[in-house]
Fold this protein.
Amino acid sequence: MAAIADARRISGESPMRVIAKLLALALFMGLLAGQSIAGESGLRALVSGDDSRPFRAVGRLDFGDGKFCTATLIAPRAVLTAAHCVHRRDGTLHDATDAVFRAGWRDGRAEAYRTGRRIVVAEGYAYGDSGLSILARDVALVELDLPVDPALIPPVGLGGGIGAGAEVGVVSYAHDRAGRPSLQETCHVIERRGTALLMSCEADFGTSGAPVLQPGGDGTLRVVSVVSAMANADGQRISIGTDLRAPVAEMLDSFAASDGVFHRALPGIRRLSSSDARAEGPGKFLKP
């Protein structure tokens, strides 16, 4: 790749931070040189109730400042998203009560509405840090004020341990398709570096926190990663996620042991939310 121009997080991130992160990723981005990514399906809007029913545990996580991310119900009172989503534009953590989870949000209606009660961020995550190891900890849980009836919306189970070549799918919202979810049925893990995953799945502003899904042994879907960042390599949009097994187990233990673990961010970091993506123009990507 000849040059690296500029990049941003999907929820909207300071370009300097993402450039630094993606420079750290440049070595394994180079693995893409000369390769084509084939066999990917396009995004398909989940228009009807029948279309969206298998994915009704996926919803929008809205914040009082107008931004949103994608999130997934993984327990009756816990939703999974990206850690940078639960921070304000100045880098401080949102109050949990500022978060509203709209399960199965489609055409102005949700299967369930719940407000946040506590937020737990993966240990080792630091908003504003540019290391790849930090990007691989970009995961958070929001505890809900009331449980969601599992008979109404079954939580999605957790998986993990996937490697290069694994076939996965993603359900997500984005700034230009905020009213209903879209499904990319087939994309792939291109490379695994530690617990960070480089994937061919599509991403845009608002996709942060979207579940990366794979069928489990019993045929039911499992969340194996969440989408954290986006980039562009040789003209191909790339998304970056993490293996969930260790951080989610640690966060669930934090829920059980305390009132929540709150990691403060470095000050002065400006965010671009999904709500003002149009004002800022299209997202910037890593360019070859």
User: Anything to note?
Assistant: The chain has one domain: 15-280.
